[in-house]
């Protein structure tokens, strides 16, 4: 078995899309298992940029993409993305995309509730306003609609009416306009014939992949620090972003998932609200944002930027089961005279080496930094370890040592091959290399 689960090891936007794209080249299937079109995965292939939100990154290379039951699927967003891809010459057909029958649907009413909840919150969470949280609430509340329901118009109308009874009570109580059944029902029924050909038993396809010895990449969205259980709650998304989420969100045994590749930038960013102990305000943060192009792929929001938080990375690696680390965007640090790593915190004056669960405590943390000399020259596009400046090597070695995870890969630019590969993520490829 030689699958790889790719998870974000920070707050998202670590560059998972291009890592998945790189892995996809030598895999058969790419699977999304959590989140929805709140995600933004950017790939640059042959100089062309592709921005994906719902589609598994492998579709750009014609690899089979599976959307698992753990995904919150907005049919309108899906079809719009399929059309955008068609305009770029990538034709997403049922031969290259399969969607789990049991994936939960994101509806216009969820978008409206997401916006209303944010407006009414004393402390907004900074959600992407895509309706993802309210859709998962409905799923857990056992009133949600699923992709398979699109095939039964009469039942769909009943389910939607019951869903609106529930939500309209809250909307009216909050002094907001209730939501009408039409045009939502009509729009869903109109989209159904385009969505249904993609629908199938993803769990069965994954089982067949195992039997056939195919390689599967599980493409996590968001990241450990946005996980509903392990992130900085309540400033999190509403799904399971850790590797374990791949098993329940796609329908495969945990023992078949294979290795877990965590992806982290060599600095840190965060979108939305919530504690960010190593955030760099002023010139350092601005430089990281500009050099790293740190603006939301789908929302355009400027990202908060700061230094790499090793305490967070170490803890995330443990709870998400990260075996190997891909460090991204090394070239963004070119030109910095000094580079900092947050290697510990102080909480009310006492040194600690873990992220406390309480939000109030997280807000009071002060970073403890270790400083490293920057380097002269350019790491952009460097593709071998030996060609890296000594200072860059020392920084990566320090990250590996402090985080306690083996660095398998370093990226040095946006092109897929701007990377230094130190260890093959697929276990069978590594065995083959050792045998040679
Ligand atoms: P939601 O997922 O739209 O409910 O947003 C909840 C939190 O997750 C907010 O802080 C968002 O900014 C964050 N978030 C959701 N998706 C992403 C992503 O793909 N990258 C970075 N942050 C995200």
From TrEMBL:
Reactions catalysed, as given in the entry: IMP + L-aspartate + GTP = N(6)-(1,2-dicarboxyethyl)-AMP + GDP + phosphate + 2 H(+)
GO cellular component assignments: cytoplasm
Binding site for substrate: 297-303
Positions that bind GTP: 12-18, 40-42, 303, 329-331, 411-413
Localization of this protein: Cytoplasm
Positions of region (Disordered): 278-297
Molecular functions (GO terms): adenylosuccinate synthase activity; GTP binding; magnesium ion binding
Active site: 13, 41, 139
EC nos: 6.3.4.4
Alphabetical list of Gene3D superfamilies matching this protein: Adenylosuccinate Synthetase, subunit A, domain 1, Adenylosuccinate Synthetase, subunit A, domain 2, Adenylosuccinate Synthetase, subunit A, domain 3
Entry's cofactor comment: Binds 1 Mg(2+) ion per subunit.
Xref: NCBIfam families: PRK01117.1 (NF002223), purA (TIGR00184)
UniProt keyword GTP-binding present: yes
Keywords, ordered alphabetically: Cytoplasm, GTP-binding, Ligase, Magnesium, Metal-binding, Nucleotide-binding, Purine biosynthesis
Binding site for IMP: 13-16, 38-41, 128, 142, 222, 237, 301
Functional description taken from the UniProt entry: Plays an important role in the de novo pathway of purine nucleotide biosynthesis. Catalyzes the first committed step in the biosynthesis of AMP from IMP.
Co-factor(s): Mg(2+)
Name of the protein described by the UniProt record: Adenylosuccinate synthetase
Taxonomy, superkingdom: Bacteria
């Amino acid at each position: 078995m030689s699958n790889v689960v790719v998870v974000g090891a920070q707050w998202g936007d670590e560059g998972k899309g291009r890592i998945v794209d790189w892995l996809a080249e030598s895999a058969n299937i790419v699977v999304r298992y959590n989140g929805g079109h709140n995600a933004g995965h950017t790939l640059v292939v042959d100089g062309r940029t592709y921005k994906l939100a719902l589609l598994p990154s492998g579709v750009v290379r014609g690899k089979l993409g599976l959307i698992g039951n753990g995904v919150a699927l907005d049919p309108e967003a899906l079809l719009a993305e399929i059309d955008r891809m068609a305009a770029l010459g990538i034709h997403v057909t049922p031969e290259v995309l399969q969607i789990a029958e049991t994936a939960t649907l994101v509806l216009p009413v969820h978008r409206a509730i997401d916006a209303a909840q944010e407006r009414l919150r004393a402390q907004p969470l900074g959600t992407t306003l895509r309706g993802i949280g309210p859709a998962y609430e409905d799923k857990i509340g056992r009133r949600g609609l699923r992709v398979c329901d699109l095939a039964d118009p009469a039942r769909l109308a009943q389910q939607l009416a019951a869903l609106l009874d529930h939500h309209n009570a809250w909307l009216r109580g909050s002094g907001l306009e209730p939501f009408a059944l039409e045009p939502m029902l009509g729009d869903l029924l109109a989209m159904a014939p385009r969505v249904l050909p993609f629908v199938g038993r993803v769990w069965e396809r994954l089982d067949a992949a195992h039997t056939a010895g195919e390689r599967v990449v599980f493409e996590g969205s968001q990241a450990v620090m946005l996980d509903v259980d392990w992130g900085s709650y309540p400033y999190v998304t509403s799904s399971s972003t850790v590797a374990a989420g791949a098993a329940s969100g796609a329908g495969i045994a945990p023992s078949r998932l294979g290795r877990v590749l965590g992806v982290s930038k060599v600095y840190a960013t965060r979108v939305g609200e919530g504690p960010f102990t190593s955030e760099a305000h002023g010139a350092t943060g601005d430089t990281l944002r500009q050099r790293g192009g740190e603006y939301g792929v789908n929302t355009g929001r400027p990202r908060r930027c700061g230094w790499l938080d090793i305490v967070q990375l170490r803890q995330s690696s443990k709870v998400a089961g990260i075996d190997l680390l891909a460090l991204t965007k090394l070239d963004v640090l070119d030109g910095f005279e000094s580079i900092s790593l947050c290697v510990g915190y102080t909480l009310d004056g006492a040194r600690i080496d873990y992220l406390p669960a309480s939000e109030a405590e997280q807000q009071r943390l002060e970073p403890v930094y270790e400083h490293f000399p920057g380097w002269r020259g350019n790491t952009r596009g460097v593709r071998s370890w030996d060609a890296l400046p000594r200072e860059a090597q020392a920084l990566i070695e320090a990250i590996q040592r402090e985080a306690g995870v083996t660095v398998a890969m370093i990226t040095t630019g946006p092109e897929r091959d701007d990377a230094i590969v130190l260890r093959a993520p697929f276990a069978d490829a590594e065995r083959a290399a050792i045998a040679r």
